[in-house]
Amino acid sequence: MNDLLGKKLLVLGGTLSTYDVVRTAKEMGIYVVVTDYLKEGISKQEADETAYVSTNDMEKLEKLIEDKGISGVFTGASEFNIRNMIMLCSRTGLPCYLNLEQWDTFSNKRKFKEICKKYNIPVVPEYDLDNEGETHLVYPVIVKPEDSYSGHGISICSNKKEFDAAVKKAKKWSKIGKVIIEKYVEGNNVEVYYLIQNGKIMLLTASDRYTDNNQNGSPVPTAFYHPSKFLDEYMKTTHPKVCRMFEDIGVRNGVFFMESFLVNGTFMFYEMGFRLNATMEYHFVEHFNGFSPLKMMIRYALTGDMGADQEKNNNPHFSGKACEIALLLRPGTIHTVDGMDIIKSKDSVIHCIQFYEEGDCLEETGSLDQNFARIKVVAKTEEELEKEIEEIYRIISVKDTKGNEMLIKSR
């Protein structure tokens, strides 16, 4: 018996960031109401019902919850809407996997790194300009907003001129007007993904993250390979420390991811997200291990419980190989898109989400806004996976109004 059948879920945000949440909730038999102030939105098209209440208008949202008999509130990877979700759940007494203090701590890059240090977890070194001054910088450095996400406002700098421009850019994207200046680290980029269920902290998977560092001075991801070739090393050296840190924090349920560089045998973290990730790695977890962290999070939002214990089913090593391809675009207006239907029909492709359509325009590079699509590919072996990826790059084409290829093809 489906105990969620007919329950009503309020989803904050009607754009593509919640599309997977809305579709998954509906597959679970849940009645979905999507709200934001926009008249249109792809997630609104999928919802059972739409509302036009802004996601930060708490009083109107509370009335919407009461009028519609809403049982839970959830959202996608938008940090703006996650904060609104936490506040709304606190005001209405609905389940939420973390509180505002925890969210404000871990969504801030500097605060996150300070907590890591307390648990002897290495982090990427920073420059404190208040004490040292910019003359002490050793280039290259990377400049980031202290509190942004999706890669906005990040720059790699090789000299003072680039640095000055980068600081202005980062402050523009920071809601609190603060920046972080880090040593530019060259190493293997490893991202780890966790689930917490009833206090049990499980490493779901780890990926080797590849970036294009020439996009308007910012590193933008192009591929995530699962499981990471450094998974065993991470589990031996760093995973126990991360578990201790989150056990002490006291979060009982939820999902989070952490990003690191592996340098000379040391995993050095630089930021995290206490939320669903734009990579949607939960599709790989469901494919290989048979359970969906996304479905567990939706269930928690409605009931305050994640459901059946999945610790025995969890295997971060997987039984095959996987890759999320993040296709990047050059600036321009899309005139034609070819090959996506063929790609979506391939047996090796378990999930594909497309962010732009014909007629859409990309003006700036250097953030996740540059993603044309994210394609999840699986195979039994590494060799088979590489063949599938190469074929996808051969098939797909995105042309601008002048007939030029807009895709940045790394193959």
Structural commentary:
The chain has 411 residues and is an alpha+beta fold. The protein is 32% helix and 30% strand. The protein is built from 14 helices and 20 strands. Strands 9, 10, 11, 12, 13, 14, 16, 18 and 20 form a nine-stranded antiparallel beta sheet that branches. It has a four-stranded parallel beta sheet with strand order 3-2-1-4, with helices on both faces. β12 (254-263) and β13 (266-273) form a beta hairpin. The longest helix is centred in the first third of the chain and has 14 residues, at 79-92. The model has no long low-confidence stretch (mean pLDDT 92).
Write a short abstract of this structure:
This protein is of the alpha+beta class and 411 residues long. Helix content is 32%, strand content 30%.
